[in-house]
Amino acid sequence: MPKNIIEYESPEEVLKDLNARSHGKYYLCTCPSCQQAEAFMYKSNPTVIYCNRQNKCGETTRIHYTNQEQSAVFQEQSQQKKRTKRWLSSAEREELKVLTANMRYFTDQLGSFDHEKGREYRGLHRGTYQSHVIITPDDKFGTRLLQAFPGLMRRYGRTEQSQKRFENRDVVIPFYDEQGKVDRLLLRSTSPDVVYNKEYPKELHCVVQYQKEQTKNFQHTITSTEKSPILLTESVLNALSVKEVDPDVEFIAATGVNHTRQMKEYVEQQPAPFQERGVILAFDPDQAGQKEQEKWKTFFRTQQIPYKEFPYPDQKRDLNDLLQDHPEPFQKTWQQVTKQFQNRLQLRQGKEA
Fold it and tell me: CB atoms < 10 A from the CB of 260, how many?
């Protein structure tokens, strides 16, 4: 049997053997390759396991089932559950209304909170991040979230260990659906004393509208008036880092290198601005980021979207690191990249005219 193909009798045996647990449309489980509990597989396709440790493992493992009949029954049951419509209760709908109103007020009207801690965050000044990120005055936001919205948050905080994951969370990045309602919250911490590990991740994803098959996991600021190249990157903080040195830049950014499918679907459905203005690709320079960037380069070629890769000085620092370490050289590099790319596009358009 090849290295990345393993054999099981049935999906039930896989779930038991790999300590899988249900998480929305996925099963979270142990990676068969590195034996770390940081892998997942889609419920709709329990034949492939993906390791989330992109820079340390990142293996894709395929499963061959010896009992095809049991496998077919399991997948049919999964599809039946998927087809079952789920609804928010009236109490949860009211919670969603209140939560959305609060998030919108903080970002759209208040412009985040006016306090010393919020004047600057990871090299980003309040005027740059205020429409996308909320820095709360204290570190109790995560805990209050569990208490104030028990219906929407009922999947979280069920145990003492899971409640601790919400402690010291004072940074909020909201993602809204097409109706303007909160779909997802990404929580972080400004505390220098926090130790990040598997039990306490740097970023905590909170799916608010859990009844949906998928929730929003990207943001964009693309308009029909701007003509400069569009920045495409794997996180909102990276995109805002460029906005700090170029206030006019427009971007599209995901919630992580493993969450780019929706973003790609958006580009595929709305190709015109990307084809006309071009894209500056700036996934992180690490192994996982560059692996994903290669996929996007292939995708852009098929979509006839011109692109240019951001030239990182090393493989360790992302856009936000560059902003914090050396803002002036970072700004100069960005200006050079955009100018060169725009000149190339204008030359191409002139030849086509």
Answer: 23
Angle CA 144–149–154, to nearest 5? 105
Distances (CA, A) of 28 to 199, 211, 233, 273: 14, 18, 26, 37
Contact of 277 with 229, CB cutoff 8 Å: yes
Ordered by start, the domain boundaries in the chain are 5-83, 90-207, 218-352
Spatial distance between the Cα atoms of 183 and 105, rounded to a whole number of angstroms = 16
pLDDT string in tens for the chain (353-residue length)? 445 888 888 888 888 888 888 877 788 889 988 988 888 888 888 889 999 888 888 888 998 888 877 666 666 666 655 544 468 899 999 999 999 999 999 888 776 676 778 889 999 999 999 999 999 988 999 999 999 999 999 888 888 888 999 999 999 999 999 899 999 999 999 998 999 988 899 999 999 998 887 889 999 999 988 889 999 999 999 999 999 999 999 999 999 998 999 999 999 999 999 999 999 999 999 999 999 999 999 999 999 999 999 999 999 999 999 999 999 999 999 999 999 999 998 887 766 65
> SS3 of 238, please?
helix
* CB contact at 8 A, 208 and 186: no
CATH fold label, 218-352 = Dna Topoisomerase Vi A Subunit; Chain: A, domain 2 (3.40.1360)
DSSP character at residue 118 = G
Nearest Cα neighbor of 137 from 163, 95, 170 is: 170
Number of alpha carbons in the 13 Å side-chain half-sphere of residue 283: 20
| In the block, residue with structure tokens 């068969």 | 32
Domain 90-207, CATH 1.10.3470 — does that match? Answer: no
Is the distance from CB of 230 to CB of 222 less than 8 angstroms? Answer: yes
Q: 0.85 cut: is pTM over it?
A: no
Give the separation between CA 149 and CA 61, rounded to whole angstroms. Answer: 38
